[in-house]
Amino acid sequence: MPVRRAARAHLALPALAAAALAACAGSRPEPAGCDLGRGPCAAGAGGTDVRLEISPRPIRSLRDLEVAAVVSRGGAPVEGAEVALELSMPGMYMGENRVPLAPLGGGRYRGKAVLVRCASGRRDWVAEVVVRPRAGEGGDGARGGGGGAGEGARTVGAGRGAAGEPAAVRVRFPFEVAE
Ligand SMILES: [Cu+2]
Question: 40 near 53, Cβ under 8 Å?
Fold first, then answer.
């Protein structure tokens, strides 16, 4: 008797998890939001807000793209963070495409990117702005704002221990290329 009850309870868990997943997927229609191909978009995650602009528009593959992000928290600009843009295609490996965004002051970050063309003809991409705050508000002041775009991302990540490293926030912007 107790054995059978336990078995039934166990079975119920995957079913619940599946239902929760389905509900989650259904309640977030991603492309319905802002279109980076038409103008700047704003989104947030974990209390960090990002306004992202990719130009020129419409966004095309195999072109030099200007990437401009404004990062804020509670309305205040986020200074001295390690910020990068990652471009990917959902469920399809298109090669690693991560560009550091250099700080300009005032919570503004800028960089350049190029999108590859998808051999399958797909045009849906996701731009993710990855923001890693400066460690402990001034504790990492030596790395401050002036770092060049080239050395940014990798050097800082490699040099810091996992324990003291502030968590990175990822803000997603789904978009489509014009061609
Ligand atoms: Cu693709």
Answer: yes
